[in-house]
Amino acid sequence: MGTCCWPEKLSSSKERVIKELVIQGHEFASHLQFLLQKPSGDFDGCLALVDELVGKILRSFDETLSVITSSESAGGEVCQNLASSQGDSACYDDRRSEDSGESKKRLAIKNKRGCYKRKKISQSWTTVCPTIEDGHGWRKYGQKEILNAKYPRSYFRCTRKHDQGCKATKQVQRMEENPDMYHTTYIGHHTCRDILKAPQMITDSDPWESYNYNNIVTSHSKIPKYEKEEEEHHPFIGSSSKEPKIKQEESKEDAPSDLTGDVSSLDSIVWKDLIPFEESVDEPTMILRPDCGVVVDSVHAYSCTEVTSQSLDMDFFVRSIDFDCDFHFDESELCRLQ
DNA sequence: AACATTTGACCATT
DNA sequence: AATGGTCAAATGTT
C-alpha cells in the first residue's frame, strides 16, 4: 500500500500531475488568494474572476486525477487507495460466476434480497466530526450492531445513486470514547454533479463558505420527529439523509432557518468541507475540517485548525496531499518544471 | 403519492 | 461460524 511508487513509464504522468496540480493549481490559488485579500469593497467587483479561478482550480484537480486514474490502468500498477471502486461490479460478477453451484442456485431462485455486489474497500477515508453533515445528500440504507462497539454503525449511500449512478457511500458510527463525535468512513467518491450549483453560491464574503455549498455552517442536523428516543443514541445518524436533501434541492434560503433550531451547541463548531476536492477530484485523499480530526485512509492523519480564506496556501495542500504511494512533490522537481 | 428510514434477511469475507 | 455490508419490504413522514 504505502510503497506503491510511480513506475518509470509513469514519470510523464507524474510531471503532468505536478504541472496541473502544483504549478497551475498553485498559480490559480495564489491569484485567488490575492483577490481575497483585497478590501471587501474591491472584492465585490472580482466575483466573476473569483468564480473563474475556482473553476480553474477545480479543473486542475479534475485533470490531475484523471491523469492519475488513467496512469493506473496504463501502468497496471494500482495505488490501492486510488484504485477505483467504480469498476468493481464486473469483478464481482466474474467472481460470482465462479462461485459454487450452490450459490448460483440460490441466486437463480431468489434473485432479490441479498443479491448484491459488495464493493471492495479501495477508496476510503475517514473523518471524526461532531456532526455527520457534510453537504452531500445521503440516504440511509442500513444499520448494524458492531461487535464490541457501543453504538451501531449506520450505512449511507448517495441520494444520487440511482439517477446519476453515484457510488459514494459512507459509514457513520458514534465514537465510544467521545459520543459527541462521529467517526465517518467515506467509501468511494461522488460522481454526481450537484456541484454545478456551486458557482451560484459564491456570493459570500467568506469564499470558503462558498465551498460549503449547502450552508453547513448554519444548517446543523435536525432530529426528525420520528426519531423519538433513538435520538439519544444517534441523533444525526437518523436524520442525515433528509437534511442534505433539503439543502441539495431548492432551499438555499429556508434551509438555514429551518435547521438551526435545536442544535445551538454546534453553532460554535464551524467547520467547512472543501467539497470541491471531494467532488471534482476523483479521489479526495484529504478533507480539511477545522475542529475535526481528519484521518485519511485510516493511516494518514491531518489536523488543521486554521485554514481560512486568509491562509489559503497551496503549499499546505501540496504538503498534505498523500496519494499513499510515495508520490512526493519535492521542491527540486517543482523548480525543474517551473 | 413520493420519498426516507427501519429492520430482518441474505450474502461476502475472513 | 462469526462478522459486517447490502438489499428490500414494511413502515413512517411530508
UniProtKB/TrEMBL annotation:
GO CC, any one term: nucleus
Primary subcellular site in the record, as a coarse category: nucleus
Residue span, WRKY domain: 127-190
Localization, UniProt: Nucleus
Keywords for the protein's UniProt record, in alphabetical order: DNA-binding, Nucleus, Transcription, Transcription regulation
Signal peptide (residue range): none
Annotated region (Disordered), positions in chain: 227-261
A UniProt-annotated Pfam family: WRKY
Biased composition (Basic and acidic residues): 242-255
PROSITE patterns with a match to the protein in the record: WRKY (PS50811)
A GO MF label: sequence-specific DNA binding
Protein name in the entry: WRKY domain-containing protein
Organism for this UniProt entry: Dovyalis caffra
Taxonomy of the source species: Eukaryota, Viridiplantae, Streptophyta, Embryophyta, Tracheophyta
